[in-house]
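Model it.
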Amino acid sequence: ENSLVIVKGEELYVGTWDLSQGFGIEHRVLTKLVKKYKSEFDEFGFVASQVQRMTGKKGEQINEFLLTEEQSAFLVMLLKNNPKVLGFKKYLTKEFYRQRRLIQKLFVQRQNAEWLENRRTGKIDRRVETDAIKKFIEYAIAQGSKNASKYYMVISKMEHKSLFLNLME
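Modeled.
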């Protein structure tokens, strides 16, 4: 799922590009604030260095910061409220809490013996499924498909989206 808040390891992050889009503020304004108050941001943990990102605007690449939950909370406190900013602050807060609940649910599941057994059998089922996808790809190529190599990714994404829907609610 495309989420505003992303999980890397056990930490939650949000990119300054996504924040700028949500707040309706120019991206350079947010990155300028991060640079200006860098020492304050560092008190909440290391500020992830700028990373390259495609914006979708004519393939343009921009540099953005990945901020932790605390860093992003500090950043949004620096912004003046207007209806759009206030609405997006609420949305961002809900997204962090939603992701945190998801991580907690997954952690609890991993401790459950039944879940561990289901995971073991799920690995066997996945091997059977990938064998079926492989045969489907071979068939598609024989029929002239030019994008058959993407079928593993597409089918897996659809499957995960449908299977993990209950965890997101």
